[in-house]
Amino acid sequence: MKPVSEAKKTSNNSQGAKDKQTSSGCRVTRSGRQVKEAQLQEDDTDSHDSYESTEDELYRPPKVVGDNLYSSESDSDSGKGKRSRKRDSRSEVREKQKPPKKRLADKEIDTDDSNYEGSEDEESSESDLEDSDAASDADSWHSEDSDKVLESDEEAPAVFPQFNEKTKFGELKFEVSMVFKSKSEFMQATRDYTIQWGRNIFFSKNDKVRVRAVCKSEDCPWVVYCACNKQDGSWQIKTLVDNHTCPRRRKNRAATQTWTLSKLVPKLRKHPTMKHREVYDWFVRKCNVYLNSTCITRALKAARKIVEGDEIAQYGLVWDYANELLTSNPGSTVQVSVIPMPESPPLFDRFYVCLDACKRGFKAGCRPLIGLDGAFLKTLHGGQILTACGQDANNHILVIAYAIVSVENKDNWKWFLELLHNDLGDYRENK
Questions:
Q1: Would you tell me how many other CB atoms lie within 10 Å of the CB of residue 412?
Q2: Transposase MuDR plant domain: from which residue to which, for each copy (predicted)?
């Protein structure tokens, strides 16, 4: 161990070295070199502000005090106090430099900076809350519907134009991708479309999966191509060149009997008494097409069969008709005569009808005179109708009875008069 005297000496030496270092401003390193240290000048804001004028104070940018992680609350409070003092001094200088009129106008308006800053903070906080709420709502929506989005990755199906079969003649239009329910609907629409524009076409391709129609004129580019959709069985137009270079024609081979019948049946339902010439004029006026006489005759006959019913099938309903007459007119006389056939249903022969109201009306108020007459039936099977008529006090004709027979002969007249005599009774009783 060192003695006490030596320890004192070493402490005195170190103290002297420190005094030398502080006096000369140099520091001695381990290697023995002396390094001169630069003296730090303290930032004196008061002295710095003393030599600056008030005008420089206005335009000098404020000092930004950085955030110190290790600073205490007292330092932050002192920094705020300094900034408030500087702000107050600047506002006083600005007020002095303003003209008196503007100064008075500003006094009327409350411009408290502290309140303004507080309102801005409140608005910013409210906007942040709204943004956070909107973000949360968006997240919640995404969380609810995210599964649906992931499940349906396929695109929405395309919507194609549908053909309307109720479109009036003359307003029909074709479009690419137009969908038809069946092949027959497409072919019928194509006929209507070509007749509407007065052009002759033919189907160059016609099978189970495709149909192609082209114009008969060699130089005309018009063409329509329709193919079958295997998924739902519908037919869709794939190609359409809707440009005719050929002239319009009044006579069209596309106006077949089937097409004529389809247009004539609705017209005949409204006007059941249409004649041959009226049908011809109607097609020229409505469809702008000329039809030959044979086509109109056959179409008119077929249309009447559809509208009025099949005459052959109606003969099978004679028994039903007789029972209905007896049910709705009690006391009437209805008789059906047939020809029996051994290996087939019986054939119709004669039919007699005398309604109860007609019998009683003739006996009560008609003159004691009966008129007999026969006429031909212009139907598919022909025949004749026999009638017995009377005359009332107003000279009006009253039908007493009638019968349908195959031919007007003595046998049929005898059969008809015997049935009439049974219904009216002896003429001597009704004088």
A1: 20
A2: 173-234
Proportion of the chain above pLDDT 70, given as a percent: 62
Compute the distance between CA of residue 403 and CA of residue 385 in angstroms, rounded to an integer: 6
3-state secondary structure of 424: helix
Sorted by where each begins, the domain ranges of the chain are: 158-254, 257-306, 311-424
Scored b (16 or more CB within 10 A) or e, 353-364 reads bbbeebbebbee
Tell me the C-alpha to C-alpha distance, in Å, between residue 265 and each of 189, 258, 268, 299.
Answer: 18, 11, 5, 9
Query: What are the phi and psi torsion angles at 46 (to 5°)?
Result: -70, -45
Q: At what angle do helices 410-424 and 356-365 cross, to 10 degrees?
A: 70
The Cα–Cα gap between 311 and 221 comes to 48
Rounded to an integer, what distance in angstroms lies between the CA atom of residue 292 and that of residue 284? 11
Say whether pLDDT at 23 is over 90.
Answer: no
Beta bridge partner(s), residue 215: 201
User: Tokens at residue 36, please?
Assistant: 């001169």
What pTM, to 2 d.p., does this model score? 0.45
Q: In sequence order, which residues have a C-beta less than 8 Å from that of residue 417 and are 6 or more positions away?
A: 372
Beta bridge partners of 228: 235
Q: Residue 330 has what pLDDT? A: 92
Q: Considering the chain, what is the average pLDDT of its residues?
A: 74
